[in-house]
Amino acid sequence: MSLKSPVLPPSFCDESTDLYHYVEELISRSQRENNQHFLSVTIETDYSDPLAVLETIHQKGVPTCYLEKPGNEFSIAAGEYLSVSRFSGSQRFQKAQKWADDIFSKTVVAGDHKIAGTGPTLFLSATFENDYDDPSLPPPLEIFLPKWQVLRKEGYNFLICNVEITPESSSENIINEFKAHISKIKGVRFNSRTASDPKKVKVGSPVENYDYEKAVGKALTEIKKQKLSKVVLSRQLTFSTDSPLPPFSIAHFLREKFSDCHTFCISQPGHGLMVGATPETLLRSTGNSFETEALAGSAPRGMSAGKDAHWGKTLLGREKEILEHKLVIQSILRRLSSIGIENCKEGKPRVLRLANLQHAKTPLTAKPVNGIHPFEVLSALHPTPAMGGSPREVALPLVSKLEQKPRTWYSGVTGWIDNRGRGEFVVPIRCGKILHDKLTLYAGAGLVDGSNPAQEKKETDWKLQAMLEVITGRTTLPES
Questions:
Q1: H/E run at residue 471
Q2: By CB atoms within 10 Å of each CB, which of 116, 189, 207, 265 scores lowest?
Q3: Are residues 216 and 314 in contact, defined by beta-carbon separation less than 8 angstroms?
Q4: 300 φ/ψ angles, rounded to the nearest 5 degrees
Q5: What is the dihedral of CA 469, 473, 477, 479, to 10 degrees?
Q6: In which residue ranges of the chain is CATH 3.60.120.10 found?
Q7: Rounded CA gap, 122 and 105, in Å?
Q8: pTM
Q9: Cis geometry, peptide bond prior to residue 383 (ω within 30 degrees of 0)
Q10: In the CATH hierarchy, which top-level class contains the domain 198-472?
Q11: Cis omega before residue 135 (within 30°)?
């Protein structure tokens, strides 16, 4: 709920809206109550491309979050911390929920924010692991209110500016800060000056963190002992590069090639930048429903309509794929039930066709239950059996033991939520982490009884192709 104010905020804002007297009133109230709060202003603008804005104005060490699904005509990007917090442990999502509620309760809103993702919006990134001992790795969960965000949705374009109001604030300074953000973003001159072709960067041979096929064999032994029904093992391939890769150029190529996926970027100071195109939506909250999906089972694309259909039919009909998919659906339903969501509607299984792969997908929809926050749903679902395995308490320790390195952002959670409870969160897969002279690519495969180590490694090779082709121009792994 927004703060009450004797002066009503303007319900519509553009670049010419005079906010001076309203800001003065907010500062006066902050002085009377001796506290801080935030002002969020939404301005409708002309055409804008959030990714192009990032490409033009992004600076090293500045946090960003970007998410786009071209097929849905939706794109959002944000940058710079106005307020940020970090949490770890098994209750990290619950702690983030309390922090988010506090931030939203301290925020007054000006401008039209009827469209999801406008108004005050928080951006979240969480790692696969709840916690780890290495402080050089990204925090297990980070959530922040940005200084600015840009949004494009079905022909509408918005710029959102957020500022902090304190007893020491100056009306002139705040108005100037708004104008600076508007000028910086609306004044962007889109050109190729900041863009470059990733294929011009020399990428060395990969170094793999462990023997994948051998680890798959060990995991299958545990499955045969009936200790668990499914486990997901991922690979990390690290390459040296002779110069920094251009992340936003990579994101552009990915969004053009995979319009039915969410293209994303995650950036935190000191932790590099993750870029990818994921087919997996973990949670969409509309205010009227919670939506998630079971995505499990993979097959290549065919060279003809007939071959393509053969692989698709195999996905929905072969025993190994049916078992893997059913385990994911059953686990999701159990986890939603554990937090009181029983009314989940299961859609028909279908084939999700991407440029290089096909997946079995089943949508799941539930009406919100009173008192259940989207972050509670995230906590219940993450990590899904499609990313970790089932049962979770047996699969996750095995993943940690066999993979040897933390996954961090890979197969974690990233997304956004606005002050009306609308939001979208995806699982970062089919991605690469970019540092100054290093690239790490990630891919994984779900293992069930009947899996074959060589075939599972081949499946991860298929999944690596998307990033490899964009970055190197090849679809085969360089020799190690």
A1: helix 453-472
A2: 189
A3: no
A4: -75, 170
A5: -170
A6: 198-472
A7: 13
A8: 0.93
A9: yes
A10: alpha beta
A11: no
